[in-house]
């Protein structure tokens, strides 16, 4: 397969059990180069477990994980992140008492050598995410929407090939959602970075994603373009019938 078409990430029959509960069952998932892929499903569908499996925070009970063409099944989260898959966390991960600049600096530790180069990377990253005016501010003092962007900035400062975002739009108003979606498209277009978006905001997912994967009870229900997913009877019955547009 042509290198440019090879999936950046693929799971083959990946499964995770917690005692008697099967949280994710026999899931095949692919993330392609330069795409924004949405991962959706009702609460308890297995989205967070899947996210933790592909980023190395959980080890699979069965199945395999391939990251950038290499079998990474059972590898640690740190090894996987160093290969270029970086994730954010649902409730944000930043140092509240540090400045925005120093927070973004943390994201450059593994990928950028030399203090001057790190400072340049911080400035570029802040510019890309609209955070330049806030660089000297203490991160914990910023409004919620900007704190969310700081978490994304820390992850993106490493210039990952695959940026995995866990519910980045939670608690954002409509303007902040629109700005964040535009920023994700900029990251993809300017840096060729793929994005995996786990998100409850259905309108946003339908607007920004190239393809969407739907989980239900830990199993794959459907994959397709937003138009295909919107029209899929199984998805409507399982998920879209419950309004999740809030």
Characterise the protein shown here.
It is built from nine helices and ten strands. The longest helix is centred in the C-terminal third of the chain and has 18 residues, at 174-191. It has 246 residues and is α/β, with parallel strands linked by helices. The strands form two sheets. Strands 6-7-8-3-9-10 form a six-stranded mixed beta sheet, sandwiched between helices. Helix content is 36%, strand content 24%.
Secondary structure blueprint with pairings:
Layout: E1 9-18, E2 21-31, E3 36-40, H1 47-54, E4 62-67, E5 70-71, H2 77-82, E6 85-87, H3 100-106, H4 115-129, H5 144-156, E7 162-166, H6 174-191, E8 194-198, H7 202-208, E9 211-216, E10 219-224, H8 226-231, H9 233-240
Parallel strand pairs: 3-8, 3-9, 6-7, 7-8
Antiparallel strand pairs: 1-2, 1-4, 4-5, 9-10
GO cellular component, one term: plasma membrane
GO molecular function, one term: ATP hydrolysis activity
Protein name: ABC transporter ATP-binding protein
């Amino acid at each position: 397969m042509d290198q440019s078409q090879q999936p950046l990430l693929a799971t083959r029959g990946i499964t995770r059990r917690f005692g008697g509960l099967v949280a994710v069952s026999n899931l095949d998932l692919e993330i392609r180069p330069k795409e924004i892929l949405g991962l959706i499903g009702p609460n308890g569908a297995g989205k967070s477990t899947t996210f933790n499996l592909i980023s190395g925070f959980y080890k699979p009970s069965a199945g395999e994980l391939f990251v950038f063409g290499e079998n990474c099944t059972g590898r640690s989260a740190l090894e996987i992140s160093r290969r270029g898959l970086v994730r954010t966390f649902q409730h944000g991960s930043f140092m509240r008492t540090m400045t925005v600049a120093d927070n973004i600096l943390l994201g450059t530790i593994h990928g950028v050598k030399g203090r001057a180069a790190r400072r340049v990377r911080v400035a570029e990253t802040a510019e890309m995410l609209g955070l330049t005016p806030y660089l000297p501010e203490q991160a914990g003092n910023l409004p919620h929407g900007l704190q969310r962007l700081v978490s994304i900035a820390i992850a993106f400062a490493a210039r990952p090939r695959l940026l995995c975002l866990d519910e980045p739009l939670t608690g954002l108003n409509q303007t902040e959602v629109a700005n964040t979606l535009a920023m994700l498209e900029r990251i993809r277009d300017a840096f060729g970075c793929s994005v995996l978006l786990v998100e409850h905001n259905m309108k946003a997912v339908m607007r920004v994603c190239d393809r969407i994967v739907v989980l239900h009870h830990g199993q794959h229900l459907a994959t397709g373009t937003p138009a295909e997913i919107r029209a899929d009877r199984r998805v409507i019955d399982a998920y879209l019938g419950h309004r999740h547009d809030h």
